[in-house]
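Internal tracking record. Fields below are filled automatically when a chain is submitted to the structure queue. Please do not edit lines marked as system-generated. If the sequence contains nonstandard residues, flag them in the REMARKS field before resubmitting.
Queue: standard
Priority: normal
Entity type: single polypeptide chain
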Amino acid sequence: MPLAEALAAQPEGLGKRERTRRQLLAAAVQAFSASGVGASTMQEIARQAGMTPSTVYNHFSTKEEVVQAVAVWLAETMCERIADSQVGVAEGARRMAIGNRRYLWLARQSPAWALLMMDVAAAAPQLLSHVAAYALADLRLGQAQGVFKVSSEAAALDMIMGTCTQAMRTAASGAAPPDHDITVAAMVLRGLGMSFAAAEAMARRPLPDFGPPGASRREARNAPKKKARGSAP
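SYSTEM-GENERATED OUTPUT FOLLOWS
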């Protein structure tokens, strides 16, 4: 599972304390997946990490702190993976469709991960707030491009987040029909002011690759720069 791989990855150059903290977060994810957020304990997180409870408390004072850190970690990891795949995508409407479809893709590919995200989000609302910030950026881009027309950004965000969250639950439960991700993405685009035909066409465009973490951004950084007119060779 690409998201699980991204969570497990340890970037180079991390100090010992940060490495330990990430190992504890990964252990917390395992504990939450096995027992649920509410029933998990600091002792269980320590056991999953192969560490002592005192080590956990050295990094997190309470379980609530662990839940909040996991929420931010999950949100940042998924949002960054989607952002990596959107490098070079300049249309706000397409970015919105990609984001919606990727979350439903996650729910279909790994129901346990999707349900974990929903469980963590219920205990730590900042997870969905973090995701909403990305949706807001795409919403504003679409408005600036004259494609989205909404009377209230707050209401539009509630519609986007509520629709996608419920659709993830449907997909994770196995009750979603084929192409549910496309249908949901199209309905969100229609709710933001696009016509039926335009929303359907945009939602059905192929998804960009979902490669290794940071791959698209690295490619963008390493791509040859176009020389400005009149610049020296």
